[in-house]
Sequence to fold (144 residues):
Amino acid sequence: MIFLGTYKHTLDDKNRLVLPTKFIARLPKKIFLSKGFDGCLEIRTPEDFNKRYEYLNQYSENKRDSRNAARIYFANSHDVEIDSAKRILFPNELISAAGIVKDVVIIGVGNKIEIWDKTKYQKFQKLTIPLYESIAERLDEQKK
Fold:
């Protein structure tokens, strides 16, 4: 399942968000909401969340970085349900962690969906869009 596109939405007064129709059609009723990288939140399907678990679980629990990565990720993850109005409820601690005020940008990032505070996403774009070609080049070099 691949998620694509950029959508602008607003959290309601109860910290609920209506997801884009294109995404809702591809998501099961129960999804996983987690703190992502770079200040965003991420939504994963149960299958993709399990892949993330398997990825983190492959590292030795004897290593501090392994333990800390798992602690941070899973302590900041919640299983949530999409309600009949196609909304999800965001826990307050994740809203705070992502610095979300009210307006959000929802983006499809292939296997997951990211939710950004609108202002934070605009800053991210200003920094990264001009670097797109050089980022692609560096990735290509890493693959060789």
In short: The CA atoms of residues 65 and 71 lie 10 Å apart. The beta strands are 6-10, 16-18, 30-35, 41-44, 77-81, 87-89, 103-109, 112-117. The longest strand covers residues 103-109. The chain has a mean pLDDT of 93.
